[in-house]
Amino acid sequence: MSKPFKPAIPEFTPQGHQISPNNVPFQITSITHPSQNDILMGRGGGTNNHAGNLNYRKIIEQFKPVYSKSPKNGKLQYSCKVVDIVRSLNPPGRFLKKDAATGLFYDIGEKAARDKTSQCLREGQPELRRAMGLVQGTAKKGKTGRVKKMKGEEGEDVTSTAPAPRRGGGANPQQHANPHYFRGNNNFTHANNKYSGVRPESPPSPDYPTRSVFPPHSEG
Predict the structure, then answer these.
(1) For residue 200, what are the CA distances in angstroms to 55, 123, 183, 193, 194?
(2) Contact at 8 Å (CB) between 148 and 157?
């Protein structure tokens, strides 16, 4: 079994600038104008259409297939590789969030950048894994008749969305044991009774919908 991947610890200059994987220092705080390689956090057209975000999504799509095939303990390395690619651009790409109080941008840090990248890599994975043939099997029913969840190789739920059977569905066992069993106002008499002339008594009170009333109880 392979050892879990451990991400590298970033280095910084005495001035507080972070050093990219290709040894280029870059500013991570009090940023006034994001560069074309920066990834902007948040939602909205301005963020989604930023050049750095568009390029970032292209890199993500390139890594999704290999991310799908990777074992669980090896997926983190691909998130780190995507972050390293962004950091190695010229100028280095940063994962920026805007400070509402100052209006300036700051880098969210390596761990948050990896978490964001892992989230993006996981998007659409169930459909991608099915298309790649990495998910096999179909949903099965257990002893209780309920549908068991089927898992892919990495644990995502690929169960069919068909509704599960109703609880208590099917015939009551007493119905088969007693051909004159009543359930509510429904008469479950045996079909041959109409030929034998045997008729059950009237249905019981609604307060007792599942009590058998045939043969009648005799007292004394």
Answers:
(1) 78, 62, 13, 9, 11
(2) no
Write out pLDDT tens, residues 30-86.
999 999 999 999 887 788 899 999 999 999 999 999 999 888 888 999 999 999 999
H or E element that contains 186: strand 186-187
181: which 2 tokens? 């069993």
**C-alpha to C-alpha distances, 128 to 55, 67, 158, 162, nearest whole angstrom:** 21, 11, 12, 21
> What is the chain's percent helix, strand, coil content, to nearest 5?
30, 10, 60
Residue 39, helix vs strand vs coil: strand
What are the contacts of 188-196 at 24+ separation with CB within 8 A? Answer: none
Q: Helices 76-87 and 110-122 meet at what angle, rounded to 10?
A: 120
Distances (CA, A) of 74 to 64, 116, 119, 141: 13, 17, 15, 33
Q: d(Cα 109, Cα 115) in Å, to the nearest integer?
A: 10
C-alpha span between 162 and 216 (Å, rounded): 44
In this prediction the pTM is: 0.60
Tokens of 164: 């599960």
- Other beta carbons within 10 angstroms of residue 51's beta carbon come to 13
Residue 59: helix, strand or coil by DSSP? helix
| Separation CA 151–CA 140 (nearest Å) | 12
